[in-house]
C-alpha cells in the first residue's frame, strides 16, 4: 500500500518512516500539531469512478457480458459503482469484500483464481472475463473461450479493463479471440492510452 502526503508525494519521500513509527507507537500525535490539522471523512468512490470513465468513450461501449472476479477485494465495490454507468451485463465472482478471502489467494497470477475465472467465462458464455489482484492494480483478462490473454496488464488494472472493452467495441463485432488472432489488438494501443491517464 502506498500512502501519499498532502503534496501528493509518497509519504516515505516526505517523512522518515522510522520517526513516524516511533511517534505512532508513543501516541505522540500533538508534538508537531500547530492546531491546523483535522480529520476529514471523504467518499472518493464517485470521483474515482468518474475518473475511470473519463478515459473511455462511453458511446462506443457495447452491452458485453463480462465475468468480473474481484477476489473479495476492493475491486468489488468499484465494479458495483461502475455497473450503474456501463452497458455491460456483469457476472460477479467473489464480489463481496471479505478480508478473510474465503475463496483463495487474492492474486491475478494465482492458478486457482485463473481457473475459476476461466470456468465462469465458459459457463456464463461471457464475451470476456477479468480477474483483479487484491489492490486492483493488476488484472488478468480472458477471452470468450476462457483463455488467459497473453501480455502483462501491469498497473492500473481497472483502467486497462475498460480500455480493452473500448477497443473491442471499435472492432466491428469481432470477438476478443478474433481480435487477438487478427493482431488488431495491441498492448501498445493500451500503453499509449495509459500514458495520458491520471487516475
From TrEMBL:
Keyword Metal-binding tagged: yes
GO biological process: carbohydrate metabolic process
Cofactor(s) required, per the database record: Mg(2+)
InterPro entries recorded: A-D-PHexomutase_a/b/a-I/II/III, A-D-PHexomutase_a/b/a-II, Alpha-D-phosphohexomutase_SF
Keywords associated with the record: Isomerase, Magnesium, Metal-binding, Phosphoprotein
Molecular function GO labels: intramolecular phosphotransferase activity; metal ion binding
Residues of the Alpha-D-phosphohexomutase alpha/beta/alpha domain: 47-146
Entries under Gene3D superfamilies matching the protein: Alpha-D-Glucose-1,6-Bisphosphate, subunit A, domain 3
Protein name: Alpha-D-phosphohexomutase alpha/beta/alpha domain-containing protein
The organism of origin for this protein: Selenomonas caprae
Amino acid at each position: 500500500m502506498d500512502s501519499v502526503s498532502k503534496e501528493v508525494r509518497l509519504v516515505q519521500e516526505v517523512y522518515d518512516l522510522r520517526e513516524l513509527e516511533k511517534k505512532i507507537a508513543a501516541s505522540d500525535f500533538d508534538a508537531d500539531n500547530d492546531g491546523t490539522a483535522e480529520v476529514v471523512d471523504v467518499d472518493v468512490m464517485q470521483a474515482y469512478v468518474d475518473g475511470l470513465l473519463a478515459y473511455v468513450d462511453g458511446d462506443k461501449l457495447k452491452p458485453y457480458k463480462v465475468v468480473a472476479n474481484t477476489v473479495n477485494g476492493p475491486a468489488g465495490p468499484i465494479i458495483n459503482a461502475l455497473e450503474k454507468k456501463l452497458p455491460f451485463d456483469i457476472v460477479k465472482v467473489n464480489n463481496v469484500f471479505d478480508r478473510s478471502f474465503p475463496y483463495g489467494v487474492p492474486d491475478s497470477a494465482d492458478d486457482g483464481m485463473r481457473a475459476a475465472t476461466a470456468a465462469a467465462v465458459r459457463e456464463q458464455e461471457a464475451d470476456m472475463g477479468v480477474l483483479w489482484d487484491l489492490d486492483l492494480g493488476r488484472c488478468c483478462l480472458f477471452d470468450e473461450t476462457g483463455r488467459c490473454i497473453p501480455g502483462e496488464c501491469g498497473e492500473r488494472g481497472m483502467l486497462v479493463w475498460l480500455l480493452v472493452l473500448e477497443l473491442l467495441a471499435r472492432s466491428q463485432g469481432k470477438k476478443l479471440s478474433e481480435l487477438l488472432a487478427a493482431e488488431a489488438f495491441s498492448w501498445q494501443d493500451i500503453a499509449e492510452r495509459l500514458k495520458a491517464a491520471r487516475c
